[in-house]
Amino acid sequence: MLISTPEHQDVVQKQQLVLLMKTYGLPSSRSVAQLPRGSGSFLTRAPFGTGRCVKLLFSSFGRTPHPKTKATRLRPACGMWLLLMLLLTVPAVAQAQFTFVTNNGAITITKYTGSGGAVVVPSTTNGYPITSIGLEAFSGSSLTSVTIGTNVTTIGSHAFYYCLNLTSATIPDSVISIGVYAFYRCPSLSSLTIGNGVTSIGQGAFYTCTSLTNITIPNSVTNIGPQVFAGCTNLTSATLGNSVTSLASAVFSGCTSLTSITIPNGVTYVGGADISGAPAAFQGCISLTNVTIGTNVTFIGPAAFTGCRSLMSVTLPNSVTNIGLQAFGLHERDGNNGGNKQCIL
Fold it and tell me: What pLDDT digit, counting tens, does each position of 161-194 carry?
C-alpha cells in the first residue's frame, strides 16, 4: 500500500516538469533525481510575468545559455512558460485536492483537502484508476457539487456526510454500492443522479437530505437499507426500480411531502417498526394519498403506514398473507381527516 506523501508529490511534479521541458524544447539536461527538491512546485507556485523567475529556475538545473544567446533564449522561454502555466493550472490544482492510498494498482481517495465549490473526482490519477471514495473522505467539506469519475465502484461510509452546501451529486454507472450514511445530513442536496450500476444503497445514505424533491432508483438496485430517505421532508415523488426486493424499516419515514408511492412487483416485504424503536417504512408520511402495492408483496410490517393521515384507502393484492399490528393505523381515529382508514382486500 502506497501512501501519498510530500516527497511522492514532489517526484510526480518533477516528472511533469521534465516531460514538459523536453516537449517544448526548454533547456534541461538532468534527470528527475538530479533536480533540486521543490523544483517541481513551480508547476503550481511559480509567479507569472518575470523573466528573472524563469532565468533563475532554468539556470538552477539546466544548461547555462551562452551570454550572446541568453536574451534571445529567455524571451521565448518566458512565453512558453506562461503558456504551460495556463494549461496546467486546473490539473495541478485538482491533483492537490486529494490524499489517497493505492492497493493492487487501484486508488482510494482518503481525504479531500480542497477549498470546496464544484469538484470532479477524476477517473485516474498518477496512471492508476480511482476506484473507491473512502470513509468520511469528503465529510464536512464545502462542496457545492460533485461529479464522480467513471472508474469509481464504491462510495464509502459517511463519504459526503454533513456537506451542508452540496446541491448536486452525480453518481456514475460504474458505482456498485453506496455506503451507509454516505450523504447523510446534506440539507442543500436538491439534484441527485444515481447510476444504473448501483445494486445496494446502505442505511441512511440520504437521511435528512431535506432539499430532495424527487428521486429515481434504477432497476439495478436490489437492496435499499433502513432510513435511506428518512426525514427527506420535501420529497414529493419516489420511483422505485423493478429489482428492489424489500423495503426496510424507516426507508421513507418522515417524508412529510410524499404524496404517492408505487411498490414494484419485485418487493415481497415492507418493513415495520422494529424492536430497537426505529420507525416503519412509511411511518409519518402525512401527505401520502395513494399507495400501489406490487403483486408479490407477502408481508407488511407493524405500523408500516402508521401516521399516514391522508391515506384513506389501500388495495392489497392477493399475495399479501401477513399484515402487522397497526400497519395502516386501522384502530386509530385521525382527528385531521375525521374518519377511520380502510383496507380493501
Answer: 999 999 999 999 999 999 999 999 999 999 999 9
- Topology of domain 213-345 in CATH is 3.80.10
Q: Which helix (H) or strand (E) holds 100?
A: strand 98-103
* All three cell numbers of 274: 422494529
What three-state secondary structure class fits 287?
A: coil
- What residues contact 277, with CB distance under 8 A and at least 6 apart? none
Amino acid at 283: Q
Has residue 18 got a pLDDT over 60? Answer: no
pTM for the structure as a whole: 0.72
CB 171 within 8 A of CB 149: no
Could you write out the DSSP letters of every residue in 186-205?
-TT--EEEE-TT--EE-TTT
Instruction: For 270-310, write each residue's pLDDT tens digit.
Output: 999 987 788 999 999 999 999 999 999 999 999 999 999 99
Write down the domain spans for the chain. 2-95, 213-345
Kindly state the helix (H) or strand (E) to which residue 53 belongs, with its residue range. helix 51-61
pLDDT digit string, tens, across residues 76-100: 555 555 555 544 444 433 344 999 9
Q: Which three cell numbers stand for residue 301?
A: 410490517
Residue 24 and residue 7: Cα distance in Å, rounded?
A: 26
Q: Strand pairing of 98-103 and 106-112?
A: antiparallel
Coil, strand or helix: which one is 281? coil
Cell 426525514 found at: 231
Residue with cell 533536480: 35
- Examine the pLDDT at 142 and tell me if it is beyond 60: yes
* pLDDT for residue 241 is more than 60: yes
Burial per residue of 110-149, b for 16 or more beta-carbon CB atoms within 10 angstroms, e otherwise: bbbeeeeeebebbeebeebbbbbbbebbbbebebebbbbb
**Which residues, in sequence order, are CB contacts of 64 under 8 Å at separation 6+?**
none
247 vs 280: CA distance, rounded Å: 10
Cell 399479501 -> residue: 320
